[in-house]
């Protein structure tokens, strides 16, 4: 990931409606996992640490890791102490040591071997425990932010199912998120591409930004309403993000 994108994310993750909305889904998935408060939880590919802060508030023992030293340093600026530089393809932990693993927007990255990474997440998770993973949806939604974080793929349900199909892992649930926002986001990204046509900048120009406060809060309320509806009525047929909950089924 580009260093400047880490710094931009660090400044936005606590405030931007999308990140806040995604954490609502993570909280719900963690509650469904029925973890003990003293459980050991790993955030694999923790980025600048916003999700790890959430985990630290919910559980006594949390660890984060990221491939980038910049990300680990920014996580430390949040006061997070148990964060280390590590590759999700080769996690430096013993087998079955975590009660849950969270992995957000990591599989998309070009440095990641999908099957190898999911196998590693399963290896470090105890039998019967949960792996919670989010991934960006639909190739046609590729953005400048994707380029800046070195994302080379986005997913449909079928493609993500193939990516996480490794020995010892069972899919418990898979759902699209942010379906209410799909059409506006598609429209925005198409217009942005049209404006940038022919410019051909080698360096990705990030399209992450914080809307005006009133707009940002309104979007978050829509995201919260969608999360509430999904918790009651099930699944959407489309969305901009995929969330998959998996269970470690066998030891190794």
Secondary-structure map with pairings?
Blueprint lengths: L2 H10 L4 H16 L7 E5 L5 H9 L2 E6 L2 H9 L5 E3 L12 E7 L9 H10 L1 E12 L7 H5 L8 H7 L5 E9 L4 H15 L16 H21 L7 E8 L4
Parallel strand pairs: 1-2, 1-4, 2-3, 4-5
Antiparallel strand pairs: 5-7, 6-7
Helix pairs in contact: 2-9
Overview features:
Rossmann fold; 252 residues; single chain; alpha/beta; seven-stranded mixed β-sheet; 9 helices
Describe the protein in words.
The protein has nine helices and seven strands, in the order H-H-E-H-E-H-E-E-H-E-H-H-E-H-H-E. It is α/β, with parallel strands linked by helices and 252 residues long. It has one domain: Vaccinia Virus protein VP39 (Rossmann fold). The chain has a seven-stranded mixed β-sheet with strand order 3-2-1-4-5-7-6, with helices on both faces. It is globular. It starts with a helix and ends with a strand. 39% of the residues are buried.
What is the distance, rounded to the nearest whole angstrom, between the alpha carbons of the first and last residues? Answer: 32 Å
Radius of gyration: 17 Å
Q: Helix and strand string, N-terminal first? A: HHEHEHEEHEHHEHHE
Tally of domains: 1
CATH names the topology as Rossmann fold
- How would the global form be characterised? globular
Summarize the structure.
The chain is an alpha/beta fold and 252 residues long. The chain has a single domain, classed as Rossmann fold, CATH 3.40.50.150.
């Amino acid at each position: 990931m580009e260093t400047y994108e880490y710094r931009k994310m660090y400044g936005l993750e606590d405030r931007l409606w999308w990140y806040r909305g995604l954490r609502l889904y993570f909280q719900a998935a963690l509650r469904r996992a029925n973890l003990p408060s003293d459980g050991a939880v790993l955030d694999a590919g923790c980025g600048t640490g916003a999700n790890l802060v959430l985990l630290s508030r919910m559980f006594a023992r949390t660890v984060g890791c990221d491939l980038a030293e910049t990300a680990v340093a920014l996580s430390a600026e949040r006061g997070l102490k148990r964060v280390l530089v590590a590759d999700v393809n080769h996690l430096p932990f013993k087998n079955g040591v975590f009660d849950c693993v969270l992995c957000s927007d990591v599989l998309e990255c070009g440095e990641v071997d999908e099957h190898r990474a999911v196998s590693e997440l399963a290896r470090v998770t105890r039998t019967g425990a949960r792996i919670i993973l989010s991934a960006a949806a639909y190739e046609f939604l590729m953005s400048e932010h994707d380029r800046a974080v070195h994302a080379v793929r986005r997913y449909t349900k079928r493609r993500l199912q193939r990516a996480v199909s490794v020995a010892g892992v069972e899919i418990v649930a898979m759902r699209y998120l942010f379906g209410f926002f799909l059409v506006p986001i598609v429209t925005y990204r198409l217009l942005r591409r049209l404006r940038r046509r022919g410019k051909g900048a080698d360096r990705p120009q990030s399209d992450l930004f914080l809307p005006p406060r009133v707009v940002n809060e309104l979007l978050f309320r829509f995201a919260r309403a969608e999360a509430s509806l999904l918790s009651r009525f099930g699944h959407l047929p489309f969305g901009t993000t995929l969330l998959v909950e998996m269970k470690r089924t066998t030891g190794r």
